[in-house]
Structures are given as C-alpha cells and as structure tokens.
Design a protein that fits this description.
The protein folds into two domains: 37 residues, Arc Repressor Mutant (Orthogonal Bundle); 82 residues, ACT-like. Chain A, domain 2 (Alpha-Beta Plaits, 2-Layer Sandwich), CATH 3.30.70. It has four helices and four strands; from the N terminus they run ααβαββαβ. The protein has a four-stranded antiparallel beta sheet, with helices on one face. It binds nickel (II) ion. The site of nickel (II) ion (NI) has 4 residues, from β2. Nickel (II) ion binds next to β2.
C-alpha cells in the first residue's frame, strides 16, 4: 500500500540523514523499519504488568506553551508512583528529565504514554524491570 504523510522539514531532514548514514537504499525502507520498531516497542509495552520499577526519560521544549504545566499535572496525578526525578536544562529551550517510578506496571505504562502523547515532547523512553528481580 502507498500512503502520503506530511512531516515538518527538520524531522524529515534528520530522518534522511540517519537512513543515509545507516545505508538504507530508500526512504521507504527506512520508514518501514521505523514502523516495525514502533510496533515492537508498543507490543513490548503491552507486556508490562505486575510490580515494576522503571524510568521515563523525556526531552522536551519548555518554551512550548502549556507543556511544563501539562507534564507537572501528569506527574501529580501519578505521584504515588514517582520515587524521584532529575531535571537538566540542556540549552535555552530544551530540558531533559528522568522520572524514576515504582508500582503497578499498567500504571507505569499509563504515565509513560500520557507523557509521550504531549505535544512538544521530542523524545521519551520507558525502561522497566520487574521489581522482584534480584540481580
Ligand atoms: Ni529545564
């Protein structure tokens, strides 16, 4: 199937840079790969259950209107899960925040998805392990 997608210039530019570096023969091939990893990431997220510890690492533009407030609201809503967080001001506009979580996997997933869905969040990554896993 063929699809048409509108993308901002800088996003497509970065994508093209990466697929060139990685030796993809076409943009379509890169997009197929990106969609596959998006799907496998969400399938992996579907398996997050039981008591868990984890982190959500977020890069966002704090100058984006309402975004810092929205992030704060989400964290207050899930405050029972949040053990700690670290905030680094990367540059004039961008912030990096790592939120450390412990609790029910389903809820950890919920907070991660709520953060990912915010407009202005440039990247966010969830990692978790079962909290009864002794190393
Ligand atoms: Ni900041």
């Amino acid at each position: 199937m063929r699809i048409g997608v509108s993308l901002p210039d800088n996003l497509l530019g970065k994508f093209d840079e990466i697929i060139e570096k990685r030796g993809y023969s076409s943009r379509s091939e890169g997009i197929r790969d990106a969609i596959r990893s998006y799907i496998s990431y969400y399938e992996w997220m579907g398996d997050i259950k039981g008591n868990r510890v984890g982190t959500v690492a977020v890069v966002y533009d704090h100058t984006k209107r309402g975004l810092s407030n929205a992030l704060g609201d989400i964290q207050h809503h899930y405050s029972h899960l949040i053990k700690s967080s670290v905030h680094i001001h990367l540059d004039h506009d961008n912030c990096f925040e790592v939120i450390v979580l412990e609790g029910e996997g389903e809820e950890i997933k919920e907070i991660a998805e709520a953060i990912m869905a915010l407009k202005g969040v440039k990247s966010s990554k969830l990692t978790t392990v079962a909290s009864n896993e002794k190393m």
